[in-house]
Amino acid sequence: MRRPTAPLAALALALALTGCGAKVSDDDSDAAHDRRPAKGSSHYPVTVENCGTRTTYDKPPARVVTNDVGITEIMFALGLEDRMAGYVMPDDKGDLDGVPWKAAYGKVPWLGKKSLTREIALDARADLVFAGWNYGFGEDNGLTPAALKKLGIGSYVLTESCRNGRDGARGVMPPLEALYTDLTTLGKIFDVEDRADALVKKYKKQVADAAAKAPAPADRPSVFLYDDGRDKPFTSGKYAGPHDIITKAGGDHVMKDLKDSWTTVGWETVVARDPDVIIINDYGDASAAQKKKFLMSYAPLAGVSAVKHHRIYVMDYADLVESPRNPAAVSDLARYLRGVRAAG
């Protein structure tokens, strides 16, 4: 999940296992071509910064374990499935059959449907764990970069989940910049910089094309992201994926002043800000239909524009957390919001 908290510990400076270079491709779904570093390659050692911590890699990680769908698909988008020992992911993350990385999902072992643990990492002989604060890492479960370092396992922290020093709040940069940063940094770690650069260029163009069609700020429909919660809604602040997705798609994110990533607000705030559109994050025990039924029947929301006009838009979980699906999600939402604006 994505409810991160607490200071980032130092990453491991050297990884225990060796391995071949990653395989990458010219497009997300194309066949990968070989990118093994030449013997004696001058690429390594390479030093990168991740969530404020500098780490030096003497060789590319060879047995990476990832947590959750967005993080796993970042590796797949870079063509790094051959560098993976497995992934941990609940089975409520939507239909994976239509994604460009279906073949990669078939190659990489699914290590568990519940929480990532130190035991899973050890059993997989991981040399690197790629997760985020409360996307796998957390003090409550004892899985932290510091704990893994003691076991000789390195860590890479999802940039969307970086802590910013404000009482456990997350977020140090705009969400799409976090995606581009992770792609670029991982490209350096695994010596697939050309692949990373191509993806970033492609995604930026996709987002720019959608943003170019957005209405002027004064004409933008206001949008609230509803993750879940009955007593209080769990939503996105300015540092989680939905903020950039909504904004670049031509919407006005009503929680843009929240300097956090994923967080809880009060229903009274939602009512006061009166969003034109509510986006439902489709995941978890409650279905999108159940969430919509709750929103449409919850008395305090009866006067909210989105509820009155039945403007409820459903998006997949993997579209909304940091992932290579974010740019396409911007394009899809932009089409919907243009329709809302055209309808008045």
TrEMBL record:
The question of whether Transcription is a record keyword is answered with no
Q: What family is this protein classified in?
A: Belongs to the bacterial solute-binding protein 8 family.
* Fe/B12 periplasmic-binding domain boundaries: 63-344
Q: Which UniProt keywords apply?
A: Signal
Recorded hits in CDD domains, A to Z, give: TroA_a
Q: Which domain of life is it from?
A: Bacteria
Please list where the region (Disordered) is annotated. Answer: 22-43
Query: Which residue windows does the record flag with biased composition (Basic and acidic residues)?
Result: 24-37
Q: Where does the record locate the signal sequence feature?
A: 1-22
Q: Which Pfam families match?
A: Peripla_BP_2
Put simply, this protein is called: ABC transporter substrate-binding protein
